[in-house]
Amino acid sequence: MLGIFGTYWALILPYIAVTIPFNILLMTGFLREFPTEIEEAAIIDGVGLWKLCWTVVLPLMRPVIATILIFNVVYVFNEFPFASILINDPDMVTVSLAVSRFQGQYTVDYGGMMAAATLVLVPQLIVYALFQRQVIAGMTVGAVKG
Predict the structure, then answer these.
(1) Residue 87 domain-assigned (yes or no)
(2) What is the pLDDT of residues 56-88, one digit of tens each?
(3) In the chain, N or C terminus with fewer CB closer than 10 Å?
């Protein structure tokens, strides 16, 4: 009815719909523990609402943003059911769907499948390596009261 079947939008919209609840849960959990003293000190210093959000709150939210980014990248890279149902053009396959193409009706190219699976894993490891420090910091926020 929308005319998006077989397009990338047919995948993007369900991915957004599926990941929004988890992302909101992580963000609200982080922001509930956010110290109000930091915001109050910035307001007393004369910071406006937009500047408070961009220069005070957003930099302190880097750990939760990095965590959300890593979870979403891993989810989208490994997601198979939506791609196998909503993409019918062989030229538009996703990475996980392309890995499944190494399995035929009567045979499986295990060497090719393992090589492709390794190539799928490399970008995920790079994203995690880049944001590992923020994720660890995000897990330890609030661990020490003082």
Answers:
(1) yes
(2) 888 888 888 888 888 888 888 888 888 888 887
(3) C
3-state per-residue secondary structure call for the chain: CCCCCCCCHHHHHHHHHHHHHHHHHHHHHHHHCCCHHHHHHHHHCCCCHHHHHHHHHHHHCHHHHHHHHHHHHHHHHHCCHHHHHHCCCHHHCCHHHHHHCCECCCCECHHHHHHHHHHHHHHHHHHHHHHHHHHHHHHHCCCCCC
Domain range for residue 13?
9-140
Q: What is the pTM of this model?
A: 0.72
Per-residue pLDDT tens listing for the chain (146 residues) = 778 877 888 888 889 999 999 999 988 888 888 888 888 888 888 988 899 889 888 888 888 888 888 888 888 888 888 888 888 788 888 888 888 888 877 888 888 888 888 888 888 888 888 877 776 665 555 444 44
Q: What is the pLDDT of residue 121?
A: 86
In total, how many domains does the chain have? 1
Q: Output the CA torsion sign for 136, 142, 144, 146.
A: positive
Q: Which CATH number fits the domain that encloses residue 29?
A: 1.10.3720.10
